[in-house]
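During the reporting period, our protein records have gained a C-alpha coordinate line. A sample record is set out beneath this paragraph:
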Amino acid sequence: MFSPTGGGVGARERRRQNRRPPGDVVAFNQTIVRTETSKVTTDVPTDRAGRVVAVHVRVGDVLPEDTLIATLEAL
Protein backbone atom coordinates (compact mmCIF):
# COMPACT_ATOMS: atom_id res chain seq x y z
CA MET A 1 0.00 0.00 0.00
CA PHE A 2 1.30 3.43 -0.97
CA SER A 3 0.86 6.93 0.40
CA PRO A 4 -1.97 8.74 -1.42
CA THR A 5 -1.23 11.15 -4.25
CA GLY A 6 -2.60 14.66 -4.11
CA GLY A 7 -5.34 15.88 -1.81
CA GLY A 8 -3.30 16.08 1.37
CA VAL A 9 -0.21 13.88 1.42
CA GLY A 10 2.80 15.71 0.10
CA ALA A 11 6.56 15.78 0.23
CA ARG A 12 6.59 17.43 3.65
CA GLU A 13 4.29 14.96 5.34
CA ARG A 14 5.90 12.86 8.07
CA ARG A 15 4.85 9.56 9.49
CA ARG A 16 3.73 10.26 13.00
CA GLN A 17 2.43 7.03 14.39
CA ASN A 18 2.11 3.35 13.50
CA ARG A 19 -1.49 2.28 13.90
CA ARG A 20 -1.20 -1.37 12.77
CA PRO A 21 1.93 -3.46 13.40
CA PRO A 22 2.96 -6.46 11.27
CA GLY A 23 0.69 -9.45 11.93
CA ASP A 24 -2.45 -7.38 12.49
CA VAL A 25 -5.47 -8.10 10.32
CA VAL A 26 -7.01 -4.95 8.82
CA ALA A 27 -10.33 -4.25 7.14
CA PHE A 28 -10.81 -2.16 4.01
CA ASN A 29 -10.50 1.56 4.81
CA GLN A 30 -9.02 0.96 8.29
CA THR A 31 -6.30 3.37 9.46
CA ILE A 32 -2.83 1.87 9.10
CA VAL A 33 -0.63 4.92 9.84
CA ARG A 34 -1.12 8.51 10.94
CA THR A 35 0.82 11.30 9.23
CA GLU A 36 1.21 14.99 9.92
CA THR A 37 2.29 18.17 8.20
CA SER A 38 2.96 21.46 9.92
CA LYS A 39 -0.82 22.05 9.99
CA VAL A 40 -2.75 18.78 9.60
CA THR A 41 -2.77 15.27 11.05
CA THR A 42 -4.16 12.66 8.63
CA ASP A 43 -5.13 9.03 9.07
CA VAL A 44 -4.06 6.95 6.05
CA PRO A 45 -6.54 4.10 5.47
CA THR A 46 -5.88 0.74 3.84
CA ASP A 47 -6.96 0.27 0.25
CA ARG A 48 -7.95 -3.37 0.86
CA ALA A 49 -8.45 -5.89 3.66
CA GLY A 50 -5.64 -8.24 4.65
CA ARG A 51 -2.84 -9.01 7.10
CA VAL A 52 -0.04 -6.48 7.59
CA VAL A 53 3.15 -8.26 6.49
CA ALA A 54 5.53 -5.32 6.84
CA VAL A 55 5.54 -1.59 7.54
CA HIS A 56 8.19 0.07 5.35
CA VAL A 57 8.39 3.53 6.97
CA ARG A 58 9.41 4.64 10.44
CA VAL A 59 8.09 7.37 12.71
CA GLY A 60 9.57 10.67 11.55
CA ASP A 61 10.19 9.56 7.94
CA VAL A 62 9.23 12.08 5.25
CA LEU A 63 6.67 10.51 2.92
CA PRO A 64 6.67 11.83 -0.64
CA GLU A 65 3.62 10.91 -2.71
CA ASP A 66 3.52 7.22 -3.75
CA THR A 67 5.83 6.06 -0.94
CA LEU A 68 5.43 2.36 -0.12
CA ILE A 69 3.98 2.39 3.41
CA ALA A 70 3.09 -1.23 4.06
CA THR A 71 2.71 -4.64 2.47
CA LEU A 72 -0.62 -6.41 2.98
CA GLU A 73 -1.27 -10.11 2.42
CA ALA A 74 -4.69 -11.25 1.22
CA LEU A 75 -6.61 -13.45 3.65
